């Protein structure tokens, strides 16, 4: 009984949303090993938190293989899924919806620059 740990960056190809009895869940498929012909064998895992393209996840757990007619499905059993990295663009997008009170409430900020003709007009 070996535990496999895989780190992967999420793309459109390796993540999908499935409908379950408890609502929509995200499923991640990751390559785990190459077979005799040199093709990648993939395993899937449910993710219990919201993920987006570009996130880097580490999935660790035991893998169970189920024979489904012509296909063999590999699934992580009780996996540990951790987000290792979240791209900066997503963080900026989420933060832009909250006001920046330090910048937005500055009474001296304006669209036009101050006109200072000489050192006498400086406040110090």
Largest beta-sheet characterization? 3 strands, antiparallel
Helix content: 10-25%
Q: What sort of overall outline do the alpha carbons produce when their principal axes are compared? A: elongated
| β-strand number | 6
Count of alpha/pi helices: 2
Q: Kindly report how far apart the N and C termini lie.
A: 73 Å
SS strand fraction: over 45%
Pick out the low-confidence regions.
Answer: 99-105
Structural class by SSE content: mainly beta
Order of strands in the sheet with the most strands?
A: 1-5-6
Elements, N to C (H/E): EEEEEEHH
Average residue-wise pLDDT:
79
- Give me the Rg, rounded: 25 Å
Question: Can you describe what's shown?
Answer:
- With 124 residues, this protein is mainly beta.
- It is 10% helix and 48% strand.
- It contains two helices and six strands, in the order E-E-E-E-E-E-H-H.
- The protein has helices at residues 88-96, 101-104; strands spanning 4-9, 15-20, 23-34, 40-47, 56-68, 71-85.
- The strands form two sheets. It has a three-stranded antiparallel β-sheet with strand order 1-5-6, with no helix packed on it. A three-stranded antiparallel β-sheet has the order 2-3-4, with no helix packed on it.
- Strand 2 (15-20) and strand 3 (23-34) form a beta hairpin.
- The radius of gyration is 25 Å and the shape is elongated.
